[in-house]
Amino acid sequence: MNMKNIFAISKYLLILLLAVSIVSCHNRNPRSVSSLTGWSSKDKAKAGFAPDKNYKGQLTPPGMVLIEGGAFTMGSVQDDVVFDWNTTPVKQQVRSFYIDETEVTNAEYKFYLEWMAQVFPPSNENYKHVYKSAVPDTLVWRHTLGANEILTKTYLRHPSFQDYPVVGVSWLQANRYCNWRTQIANERVLIEKGVLKDLYADDSLTVEGKNHFNVNTYLENPYLLFDGDTAIYKKGLPDYKKKKGGRGSRDTFTGRQVKMDDGILIPDFRLPTEAEWEFAAKANAENREYNNIRGRKKYSWSGKYTRNKSRRSVGDQLANFKQGKGDYSGVAGWSNDGADITMQIKQYPPNAFGLYDMSGNVAEWVADVYRPIIDNEANDFNYFRGNVFNKRMIDADGKVVVADYNNMEYDTLDNGMVQARNLPGTIKTVPITKRDAYMKPNYDRSFNIDSRDGDLASTKEYEKDEGELDYKPRMYNSPEIPREIGESGLMIQQYDKKERVTLISDKARVYKGGSWQDREYWLDPAQRRYLPEYMSTSYIGFRCAVDRLGPMTPKRRKRFNSDVVR
Questions:
Q1: Is there a domain that residue 402 lies in?
Q2: pTM tops 0.85, yes or no
Q3: Which of 48, 384, 425 shows the shortest CA–CA distance to 215?
Q4: Contact 184/265 with Cβ under 8 angstroms?
Q5: Burial of 62 by CB count in 10 Å (0-12 exposed, 13-18 middle, 19+ buried)?
Q6: DSSP labels for 133-168?
Q7: What angle do CA 27, 33, 36 make, to 5 degrees?
Q8: Which of 5, 49, 94, 513 gets the most CB atoms within 10 Å of its CB?
């Protein structure tokens, strides 16, 4: 081989080596070295800072399905037979979220009741109203001209109905269940991680009153729980900065507590918004062609009829609803829908998102306050009416205030039901003030339920300030329950004697979907009705939702810029 060839090969190898080094520099893991400061994860951990984590994404909460968000037409696709313009079509964008694949069942709700009875025993004078306020109203099955008394005794408790959707639950009770589910689910996460002791298996612990887990209090200060008992925590996550001196004793807490930054804890469970529920029920994704929706869906399944077309089940109904006057199931021996009242979950095929009974069986509470019109001009992104912005209550020493288990505070609802204002161990909140909202471009007050539809600006006194008026003008002349409390603390029950023209109020909550006692018309996911938040029926249940954090979908999206560091 002559010198000229050797020189050419050497030059080629040098160019190749240079190219490989350049590519490797571009392909360096951005988590190992910060592109803004030059600090690597090791440098950060060595100095005691939180290192960049190889976070793999949010896990799907138990019993839930991920609904990828998108744009859809919210509102009616059928004729408006009553001409109330209650479901006028509007274009909305919904963020991705998780939702229960079925309604909450009697079995699941009974676990909640058993937990409440154990942690807040009704025999304790401090907690006598806590458990009672969580129990569904089983008397919703009564009818003055119906023989349904057996259901008032058996529907909630008897094992024959354990997989049936819970009913008799008010909007307020459903929200409290969602809050409890947040605590109990995250408590289990920390127990499985070995951070928290198994509170229910340890004989030395009594899970009662203040001795129960609350995720918000834990994130604020883990030692605000359990009277600051450090023995409740077994071991923490590895410290950012490894401490010298070896491992501690078996009885001492080592490492660090879980933070929101770790991505371990489940976000709050809540009721879905009306837009989310309708988007999930319609499941328009199955009618998608590229970036367009072809055709309109009348129900949560494809097609414009309620009967099954498959050979195996031809003629059977695809939902549990009232067939006609005096017909809830069909003729004996050939039941159309298999049920006379509610029925077990997962008895019908799911919709395209994998959700069961989004049409029929029971109607479902959603989070929104009812108004006749969805205000698309106000907000077409993740629409929701019902925001009340609060902040943590801070005492004179600058510390957060945690509800005291010795001095329970109760509220009396309009129907006379008494419920705890804050459960022991929870952080108290107060409405934000005008000072807090000063110079905020996106909100200016705490109470936004009646924004643009019932607030002062919506009335004939729109030019005045609230401070100038001795009363608040009412846009909706709904009934008002007299608020007289007797010496025993119970409300003196009275009815509003004034003539009213509407039932719409700031306490009227939306419920969606048809039920076992509704006709076909109400199976349309766009239909909407309302009921006061403290009332319940035999045909309204609920399911929970959780926010999706980060990307809309777990699918990896190709980058458009090839020069971006990967």
A1: no
A2: yes
A3: 425
A4: no
A5: exposed
A6: HHS--GGGG-BTTB--HHHHHHTTTSGGGTTSBP-S
A7: 105
A8: 513
Which amino acid, one-letter code, is at 184?
A: I
Read off the pLDDT of each residue in 537-565 and give the average, rounded to a whole number: 80
Q: How many helices (H) and strands (E) does the chain have?
A: 8, 15
> How many domains in the chain?
1
- One-letter amino acid identity for 455? D
Residue at 206 is within a domain: yes
Residue type, 457: A
d(CA 300, CA 565): 43
DSSP 67: E
Determine which helix (DSSP H) or strand (DSSP E) holds 31, and give its type and residue range. Answer: none
Domain containing residue 132: 106-262
Determine, yes or no, domain membership for 131: yes
Q: Which amino acid, residue 17?
A: L
Q: Say how far apart CA 520 and CA 508 lie, in whole Å.
A: 24
Contact 283, 300 (CB under 8 A): yes
Least confident of 275-279, 380-384, 461-465: 461-465
In degrees and rounded to multiples of 5, residue 70 shows phi and psi of 170, -175
The label of the residue with tokens 């329950």 reads: 481
Tokens 């008992």 locate to 229
546-559 per-residue burial string, b: 16 or more CB within 10 A, e: under 16: bebeeeeeeeeeee
Q: At what angle do helices 171-192 and 106-119 cross, to 10 degrees?
A: 80
Structure tokens given for 490: 């119970």
DSSP 219: H
Residue 421 per-residue DSSP state: S
User: Is residue 229 one of the residues assigned to a domain?
Assistant: yes
> CB of 109 within 8 A of CB of 123?
no
**Gap between the Cα atoms of 480 and 515, Å rounded:** 29
Quote the mean pLDDT of the chain.
86
Structure tokens, 188 = 């289990």
- What's residue 565's pLDDT? 46
Could you please report the per-residue DSSP string of 329-373? Answer: S-STTS-SSS-SS---TT-S---TTS-S-SSSSSEEEEEEEP-SS
